[in-house]
């Protein structure tokens, strides 16, 4: 039982980390989209 | 094959690798490649950030299609050796997670495409996702042996989307690229379904070799390869591409038709002896990559 709880926590942490990186990447992407659209008036 | 029990809830939260597997990364690579080709042959290129975002949206849209397909077909996948170890039939993920992931990914990709590029590309992306999930997966695939013929349209959208993201319009060349993939899909999938037909039969999916038989499927594979070759060579005489593409397309299509002819001439009914079908299937993947690569090279030289 303890082993399974440990595995649940490990997987949740791993997923949270990946989600955080993806959200960070999305913010950076939005920044570049805004710059590209504003500077080139595309 | 061991019996696999389907459960609605998995014992553990799914691993991130299972979410990745849900998006069918190998299928996604061909979709991304054809969308990129559609974008690179367009008369104008978007700024890098917008072009990158457009291709990312196509990849996410393809991932959403894969996830929703696996959500809907979890029970069928459990019956086929080729798909039994996917996250849902293997019990590593619950179905709700797959549904939420697919709907979320699809919605996000369409909205981001509209915001970053234009709404024509976003509408085409939405249409391709809905077509694949509703028309192909839910409606056609379990009902008719022509599922691949009509459903192939879903996979033919990416070059159109790439072109539309770059230009905001649809013209004759991207329409021909749509036609090429549309006509390529039946021989490609029927060649595969010939040597895994027992899987499809066990799962109750009416693929052409299961319903119409092997000989009929061999004829259909050859017959579809002819208009496919015509559509693939057409951009050259129509003046839409140069001779580099025209000559390459002629060679690639000649080989395709020859391999389809070998399938037509084959008499083997044992999947392990279906060398001609396996060669055609392997070549068909190379063919599409090579054809679109030469199209891009021709545009840039």
Describe this structure in words.
- The complex is a heterodimer of chains A (42) and B (301).
- Chain A is mainly alpha-helical and 42 residues long.
- Chain A has one domain (1-42).
- Helices cover 93% and strands 0% of the residues of chain A.
- Chain A has one helix at 2-40.
- Chain A is rod-shaped, with a radius of gyration of 18 Å.
- The mean pLDDT of chain A is 89.
- Chain B has 301 residues and is mainly alpha-helical.
- Chain B has 2 domains: 13-169, UbiA prenyltransferase (Tetracycline Repressor, domain 2), CATH 1.10.357; 171-301.
- Chain A binds chain B through residues 4, 7-8, 11-12, 14-15, 18, 29, 32-33, 35-37, 40, 42, and chain B through 11-16, 46-50, 53, 56, 115-116.
Briefly summarize what is shown.
Chain A is mainly alpha-helical and 42 residues long. Helices cover 93% and strands 0% of the residues of chain A. Chain A contains one helix and no strands.
What percentage of residues of chain A falls in helices of 4 or more residues? over 70%
CATH topology of the largest domain in chain B: Tetracycline Repressor, domain 2
Oligomeric description of these chains: heterodimer
Q: Judging from the principal axes of the Cα atoms, what is the shape of chain B? A: flat
Largest sheet of chain B: none
Distance between the termini of chain A: 57 Å
Structural domain count of chain B: 2
**Order of helices and strands of chain A, N to C?**
H
- Encode the helix/strand succession of chain B as letters: HHHHHHHHHHHHH
Coarse shape of chain A: rod-shaped
Tell me the Rg of chain B in angstroms. Answer: 20 Å
Overall average pLDDT of chain A = 89
Give the biggest beta sheet of chain A: none
Structural class of chain B: mainly alpha
What's the helical proportion of residues of chain B?
A: over 70%
- Strand tally of chain B, please? 0
Number of domains of chain A: 1
Quickly name the level 1 CATH class of the largest domain in chain B. Mainly Alpha
């Amino acid at each position: 039982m303890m082993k399974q709880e440990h595995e649940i926590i490990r997987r949740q942490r791993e997923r949270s980390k990946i989600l955080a990186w993806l959200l960070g990447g999305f913010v950076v992407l939005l920044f570049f989209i805004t710059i590209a659209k504003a500077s080139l008036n595309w | 094959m061991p019996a696999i029990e389907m459960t609605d809830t998995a014992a553990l939260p799914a691993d991130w690798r299972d979410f990745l597997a849900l998006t069918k990364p190998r299928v996604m690579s061909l979709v991304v490649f054809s969308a990129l080709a559609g974008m690179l042959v367009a008369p104008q290129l978007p700024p890098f950030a917008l072009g990158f975002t457009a291709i990312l949206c196509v990849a996410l849209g393809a991932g959403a299609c894969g996830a929703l397909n696996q959500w809907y077909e979890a029970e069928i996948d459990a019956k086929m050796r080729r798909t039994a170890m996917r996250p849902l039939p293997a019990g590593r993920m619950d179905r709700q997670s797959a549904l939420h992931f697919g709907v979320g990914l699809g919605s996000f990709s369409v909205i981001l495409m509209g915001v970053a590029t234009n709404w024509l590309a976003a509408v085409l992306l939405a249409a391709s996702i809905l077509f694949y999930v509703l028309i192909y997966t839910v409606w056609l695939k379990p009902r008719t042996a022509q599922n691949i013929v009509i459903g192939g349209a879903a996979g033919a959208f990416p070059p159109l989307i790439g072109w539309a993201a770059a230009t905001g319009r649809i013209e004759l060349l991207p329409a021909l690229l749509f036609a090429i993939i549309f006509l390529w899909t039946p021989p490609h999938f029927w060649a595969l379904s010939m040597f895994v037909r027992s899987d499809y039969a066990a799962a109750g999916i009416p693929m052409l070799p299961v319903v119409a038989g092997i000989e009929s499927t061999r004829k259909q594979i050859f017959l579809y390869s002819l208009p496919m070759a015509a559509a693939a060579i057409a951009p050259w005489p129509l003046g839409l591409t140069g001779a580099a593409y025209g000559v390459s397309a002629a060679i690639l299509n000649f080989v395709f038709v020859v391999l389809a002819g070998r399938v037509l001439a084959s008499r083997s009914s044992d999947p392990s002896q279906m060398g001609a079908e396996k060669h055609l299937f392997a070549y068909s993947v190379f063919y599409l990559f090579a054809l679109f690569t030469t199209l891009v090279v021709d545009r840039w030289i």
